[in-house]
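Morning F.,

Quick status update on the modeling queue. The single chain you submitted on Monday has been processed. Sequence for confirmation:
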Amino acid sequence: MTKQAFQVASEDRLRGDAYGLLARLLCDVPDGALLTLTSEITGDDSPLGSALSALAGAAATVTAEAASEEYHALFIGVAGGELKPYCSFYLTGFVYEKPLAKLRLDMERLGIGRREQIKEPEDHMASLCEMMAGLISGVFGAPVDLETQQRFFDRHLAPWARLFFEDLEGADSARFYKSVGTVGRLFMEIETTAFEMAA
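Structure tokens below.
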């Protein structure tokens, strides 16, 4: 679906960009162009800003080949990667379970279609981050209100996202992706707190 031009507040645009970055880093093997783009991120003195600076430094030093090998070890593997980045798996221990069915109902209600070229179940962390980015920025129509964003976050990310990113930080195969895990964990903590304060 083509992204339409909507007015989005600067803080929401930054939130959408953070979700979009996580989605891109988790959806597939990172190529040289993505690593270069990531290496240009600048942070600040906040915990998340420091984590973003560390991620940029990691992206500047890792090769595309090493990042590819790491991605395969973490998420693909010969008989499955070290981590299974699916909501259903984290909540039930199995893929293609009830959390995925609930997500598909919400996707239909929100006008979010599945891209045919994507073979992964829709409750993959990359897909959920991409959906949050789209809800914030208006990819699926007009940007949705904060209440709708929170409902989606609470149902499909809050129950497991922080734990997934903690697991990514501590995964045996994670080197570059350790920094991705730190950014994801801190960002999910910020989102959780912000939604709680807005409720």
